Amino acid sequence: MLNFDKIKNTDIDVYNAIIAEKNRQNSCIEMIASENFTSEAVMQAMGSYLTNKYAEGYPGQRYYSGCQNIDIVENLACDRACKLFGAEHANVQPHSGAQANEAVYIACLEKGDTVLSMSLNSGGHISHLSKASAQSRFYNTCYYEVNPETYLIDYDEILNLAINNKPKLIIAGASAYPRKIDFAKFKEIADKVGALLMVDMAHIAGLVAANLHMSPVPYADFVTFTTHKTLRGPRGGVILCKSKWAQKIDSAVFPKMQGGPLEHIIAAKAICLKEAMQEEFKTYQNQVIKNAQSLAKTLISEHINIITNGTDNHLVLIDLRQYGITGKELANTLDLIGITTNKNAIPFDTTSKTVTSGIRLGTPAITTRGFIEGDVEIIAKIIAEIIHNKCKISQEKSTKYKQIVEKLCRKYPLYR
Length: 416
Ligand code: DSN
Fold this sequence. Notes:
The protein is of the alpha/beta class. Helix content is 44%, strand content 12%. The protein has a 7-stranded mixed sheet, with helices on both faces. The protein has a 3-stranded antiparallel sheet with strand order 11-14-13. Strands 1-12 form a two-stranded parallel ribbon.
């Protein structure tokens, strides 16, 4: 168990907030698809002596003395990232997934180049050069949508867009897409139009590590990911690339985009990558998918409309349009009874991004706690009942739901 006594003695306000957050995590059902609970080993690395060290540069080529131990840690993280995903080169310094993506743009694009990526509405990410990102100003951006009827990625449509727009870079990867992505098909499209391919596998990195999703590494020129989602590590980013891009990627991260790397976080990345090589990690990821499928199945049996009518991965996206409630209302109502989710746009959503017509649910965090299919069914039934009642729940019902949530949390304690 981690000990925060030093913080308690130094700063009682911060201590109280940390303990309150620990209690919140312990007593709520965490269903934000991009969140997870790291091991204590990962947390200890983040609070270690490595935080004190400047290490601009790369192992063996630093701009500061005294980096001999830092070099060991960073080399371990890079070697493990390459081994786990079968990559030729890894850069573990990006502070976040968005920065990992930005470094790829710096490495391979010139101002005015054309980039084709998944639209935000179809489940893409802001940092895939959506109009909301600052970087989109520098490039000629075009976007693909999912198929308007099936809500599945339409590879023929992407090929048409690629032929018509001749992008220099095609981006695959999503933050709210519940189905498998065929990276081999993306590679075929990229090759047909002479484009480079970048895959952001942040959401599914853990599933890829466990061989439960096609790996993008053999197909993509660049693969980026965060280490804190299904991979269950610290908050941060990683870039994998072919050797021929190694130098350009490294110089894009430092000195072009970032200064000193966060070596305490890099140590935590090394640990999470080691954890991801263990057999138990595979079992865990298998359960993540089983739980997501149980969630989808139960919601469907309770007459709740979910995007693509199921899931292949760790997330489920509910389409709320026919129930007369918004994503914001449902997320707020669920929050009141201890189920933490996020409002999320669904494909072709016409409501604002701060309101939305959808809710995104994920199973990585609850699975880390130990939840299995039967537990997920209970949660799905509560969510369905709340949706059918248009978020209007009596005091009595609210108390009942809270008791169920508390009971499940007590059954699978997170922190003692
Ligand atoms: N914001 C993350 C998510 O929730 O999907 C992606 O970076």
